[in-house]
Each structure stands twice: as structure tokens, then as C-alpha cells.
From TrEMBL:
Belongs to the cytochrome P450 family. GO terms for molecular function: heme binding; iron ion binding; oxidoreductase activity, acting on paired donors, with incorporation or reduction of molecular oxygen, NAD(P)H as one donor, and incorporation of one atom of oxygen. It comes from the Eukaryota. This is Cytochrome P450, family 712, subfamily A, polypeptide 1. GO terms for cellular component: membrane. The keyword Metal-binding applies. CDD domains: CYP93.
Amino acid sequence: MAIISSDILYYPLFLIWFITALLVHSFIKRFLKPSRTRVPDPPSPPALPFVGHLHLVSSVLPKSFQALAGRYGPLMQIRLGASSCVVVSNATVAKEIFKTQELNFSSRPEFGSSEYFIYRGSRFVLAQYGDYWRFMKKLCMTRLLAVPQLDLFTDIRDQEKVKLVESVMKCCKEGKPCDLSSELTTLTNNTICRMAMSTRCSGNDNDAAEIKELIRTCLQLSGKISVGDVLGPLKILDFSGNGQKLKAALLKYDRLADRIIKEHQEEAMKGLDKNQRKDLLDILLEVCKDPTAEVKISMKDIKSFLLDIFMAGTDTSSAAMQWAMGKLINHPKAFQKLRDEINSVVGPNRLVKESDVPNLPYLRAVVRETLRLHPSAPLIIRECAEDCKVNGFIVKAKTRVLVNVFAVMRDPDSWTNPNEFDPERFLESSDERIGEHQMEFKGQNFRYLPFGSGRRGCPGASLAMLVMHAAVGSLVQCFDWKVKDGEKVDLSLGSGFASEMARPLVCYPIARFNPF
Ligand code: HEM
């Protein structure tokens, strides 16, 4: 009897609870979160539990995101395992991020490998927008990477370019294939090492080679660890030990940098010869000692900053030059047009040099077109500081934002025949009228963003352009190129965040002009 009476009570009580819950729910929905005025989240493809949208992307991330944007729009939300972000894919939304709401998107998030970086907290490239970053950026733009400082090192860049041509000539003489990937990375690494810390001043020529190897290791390992980012909390287990390997490589760099700094300090004690130019390390050490500097920088900051310059500057420029050569080899008409231009401007007696570049519009157009199709940093990463509305959708504070410049620069709404290699479009005479011809690589034209834009844009763009024009010009001026296996260079895109070539560019050079 007692059992029956409790059942009788249970059902009405359950009904009352259920109806109350429904009422409270609809009250909250109606009054506390009014759906009509609520700014919607960016659109997002249907996600699977745990993996999110991982099943929708291939290893070539910028291309996968470009395809998804075709269906979900220029601002979409993507979740890869434990990490989520919004992806921007056209010029209009890129302008909102880089210009209209610039301050709100001027920080970068901590990413993948940051926790293994021994200099965590003083890194420049991944620094939050704030006093330290502002101070260092100003130093870059006014001194370290400013045109007068770059001009002081013209001879160094020229010597490294000559070494490149000599090394390729050697391949010709020996009938061996030339690994342009390795040759061009040596060029950019040596150039930056000499401009940054005059490696020769250590009296040890192997320093540049050691730095090249360490940077290669750091870039490879941080790339792999960034993929581990997707595992979220599991990444702390560091299954493959990449984090520890990265730490070991960084500690090795730290010891090397300590030694080179000590040598610079000893040189400075002896008193710099007035005619001796200051390299980046000399300037940084001066700033470190300056009691009037707005921000006090430490030795750790200096080592970290130089590492950033190496990591941001070597592979980016080298990858872009490989793409330029690959494109030119596969487009013989463009190759011939460029060689004719160089021959007519430079003449038959010497190698092309930096000061020729203003008179070589087709060379400039080739490099710009290459960066349009193959930006070395195809996914520019920023972080949102405060909740805001972008393209009609809410972007919450702390959201990671990836601007897919690969997609922006191939958008058919902005470019005619966007996937074709057509350097002519960058000539003044072109019908396409790219627009601000002088400004476009400085990121003031939001459909052309190889170097990003705004205060967070690349401070190394001028240096990269100087090195790339002279090197690509020389390789076209001096050599014909025969593809190793077959008629055409394999121009497949590589995997990951940086869209390098899937396979290193290895070709047979045939000497056409010997400047030595
Ligand atoms: C073809 C060559 C290069 C390309 C395509 C490239 C591209 C980029 C891009 C897209 C960014 C992010 C910009 C943004 O967030 O808006 C960046 C940042 C940066 N780049 Fe470059 N870069 C190149 C060469 C260089 C060189 C040669 C250096 C230095 C020697 C350099 C140093 C940096 C630094 C330090 C940053 C971080 C700036 C900041 O966070 O404020 N880059 N680069």
C-alpha cells in the first residue's frame, strides 16, 4: 500500500518540475539572451566529437581552409581537435582585422611550441601587444632593419650572392644536380648571420653553419609540436619527445649566442673603430646599456630577438626564391623575358646587383607574383583582445584568428585568373591595375598581403626583397635549368602551416654566362 501511494505522489511532482524547468528555460532564452539581437557566431562546418573539423582538412592547411571558405564564407569558425580558431579568407574581412580593428587584433597567441621555448616571455614574434613589443618594433623599423642600416651591408649581401653563383657554377662544372633549397637557405642564413652578429668577427666561420643547422632543427620541431597542439591537454605528455629535443637545440643556440655576445662585448671594450659598422647585436647591446631607454632589455631578450630574426627571416625568403625559380622554369616564356630584361639593363660584363632592381620592372613583377601565389607565411596568426563584431559575427576575446592570405591572394573576386602565374599583372602597364604599386607589399592593399599588414606586419620585408631580387636575377642571368626527373618542376604544395614546396627544388644548372 505504502509503495502505491509514493508512486501517486511521484508523477505529479515530476510533471510540476518538468513544466517549471521548461518555463525557466524559455524565460532565460527570451529575456536574458534575446535571440533576435544576439550577434551570431561565425558559421562553422558540422563538427565531429573530439576531432572537430579535423576530418575536413588535408595536410595542406591553407588550401583546405580556402575550400571550406567557399562553402562557409570569408569568416568561419574551425576546430581542429582541442584548438579552435576563426579563419579569414577575403580582402574585406582581412581589412577589418588589419585596419578597422587593428588594435584589437595586434597580439599573437601562444602557440604549440611556446612552452618549450627557453626564452618564453621575451619572444618578440609571439609577444602580446604591449610596451616590450612596441619598443622592439620601433627599434626594428627605425634602426635594426631600417633602410640606412640595410644599406651599410650591401657589400655583405653582394658577397653572399656571388658565393651562391659560384656554388651553382661548381655543380655545372661537375655535371651534378643542384639542390636550390639548400643553396638558397645557405644564402639567407649567411646574409642574416653576418648582418645580425658579424659571425666572421668570432673568427670562426662555422658559426653561421651551426646556426643554420640549429634554426632548421628548431623550425622542424616547432612545426611538429604545433600539430601536437591539436591534442590539447594530452600534448603535455610529449609522446615523441619533440619538446625536449627543441629545448636541447635552443640551449645549444643559447650557448653559442652567449659566446658571440661575449666576443662583441670584448670588441666594444677595446673601442669600436669609428668606421666599423655596427651589426644588429652591437646596436642591441648599446640599447641594453642605455640608462635612458624607454624599456630595459635583458641579455635574454637580445638572444631571443636574434633567434626570432633567424627563424622568421631565413626559410621564408629561401622558400619564396625556390617558388620563383620553380615557376620560372615551368614558364619558359617568362624566364626568357626576364633574362632579356636583365641582359638589356645589366649588359654582358657583370652580375646583376641590388642597385639595378629599380630598372628591372619584370624582375620585381616576378617576385611579387610569386609571393601572391606562394606566400611564405600563408596563415597569419593573431589573437583577439576583446569581444568584437567582425563581418556581422561575434569574435570572442582570446580567439585565435588565422588570416588565410593564400586564399585572399587567390580570391577570384579580387584577381583575374587567380591561379595563373602571370607576372604581367604587376606591371604599371597592366589592365588589372593592381593599384598602389608602391605600397602593395607594405600591406596597404588588403588583397595583397604576403608580409601581413599594419603595426604587426613583417619588419623584414625590405631586406627580404633586396635579397630575393638579386638572387633570382642572378640565377636567371647565369644559368639555364634542366629539371631532374622529367619536363616540369613538381610544384605541389607542402604540408603544414608554411606552404613550402612539397619536394626540394633539385635541378641541373647549365652555365650561360660566367661573370667571374
Ligand atoms: C619572403 C620573405 C618573408 C615573408 C613572406 C615574411 C612574411 C611575414 C608575415 C606574413 C609576418 C606576419 C605579419 C602580420 O602578422 O601581419 C611576418 C612577421 C615577421 N617577420 Fe617576416 N617575412 C619574410 C622575411 C622576413 C625577414 C627577412 C625577416 C628579418 C630579418 C623577418 C622578420 C619578421 C619578424 C620579426 C616578424 C614578426 C613581427 C611582429 O610580430 O611584430 N621576416 N613576416
